[in-house]
Amino acid sequence: MMDWTDRHCRVLHRLLTRRALLYTEMVTADAVLRGNRERLLGFDPVEHPVALQLGGSEPAKLAQAARIAADLGYDEINLNVGCPSDRVQSGRFGACLMREPALVADCVAAMRAAVAVPVTVKCRIGVDDQDPEIALRAMIGACAAAGAAVFAVHARKAWLEGLSPKENRDVPPLDYGLVYRLKQENPRLAILINGGIATLDEATEHLKHVDGVMLGRAAYHSPAILADVDARFFGEAPRDVDAAVDAYVGYVARKLGEGVPLHAMTKHMLGLFTGRPGARLFRRHLSEHATRRSANAQTLRDALALIDRARLAA
């Protein structure tokens, strides 16, 4: 979810669910070591539990980056072996590492030796002409031997030649059955499933076969889905979307005072009211006004007022 699940997005999502584990955008180990750490790694304490997703293929650098992240308070370090973007391939990390399970295992071992928090792996079922039945098991087996116990598996191949990153999210067929079999074969490992899951009803069905479900685009484009997560899966009270929005408005006002532009925070809200009266007017107002220099917290309040008026008129 590069360029999507930034710190503002995660605050919004946390206000909608107390219990779901949130993941950052993927950040490369080199960026952590050389870049602006506050910009790349900074997060609000409200986000806990939150996992940092790292990309890289050099064990020593990944270990150092993991140590920095753990010292900052991240609850988990996740090594991404699933992203198919061109940037990732050119840097020898992400999905192309599905071809090098021994190297990935070395990375996991180095990271685990460097930190006390869990080190987990996110992967595909294979890339290009690999046989997923072989490639996925090879990756899981090597990383489990190195001490990883939690795997999030996007149940599609990644085609690094011939498909764009966007196409790789939809075109390769899903093979949930392979992920289910992986869990059956590895009862001591925690296997999470990812890919094409659009509703909590679908997540419930998957949880009959695996230990967890990772939502990506569904949670981003329709974040209100998260308000039912705590009640559905953790036996807690559901979150109230309107209360979460009120809290987020307060967060937005604080961040505006720190110089964060309004659109950087409101862009994550555009799908929040999908299906509710006034949703289209809400999106249009933010799209037209949030990027202006004069945009402020009142701009967001005006957009929300459109939802309130539409609800009263319905």
Structure, described:
The protein folds into two domains: 221 residues, TIM Barrel, CATH 3.20.20; 73 residues, Four Helix Bundle (Hemerythrin (Met), subunit A) (Up-down Bundle), CATH 1.20.120.1460. It contains 16 helices and seven strands. The two termini are 35 Å apart.
Q: How would you describe this structure in keywords?
A:
single chain, 314 residues, alpha/beta, TIM Barrel, Four Helix Bundle (Hemerythrin (Met), subunit A), 2 domains, seven-stranded parallel beta sheet, 16 helices
Name the CATH architecture of the largest domain: Alpha-Beta Barrel
Q: What is the β-strand count? A: 7
Distance between the termini: 35 Å
Radius of gyration: 20 Å
Sum up the overall morphology in one term.
globular
What's the main sheet like? 7 strands, parallel
Major β-sheet strand ordering = 1-2-3-4-5-6-7
> Could you name the CATH class of the largest domain?
Alpha Beta
Number of domains: 2
Name given to the CATH homologous superfamily of the largest domain: Aldolase class I
Classify the beta-strand content into a percent band: 5-15%
Supply the helix-strand structural class: alpha/beta
* Helix run count: 16
CATH topology of the largest domain: TIM Barrel
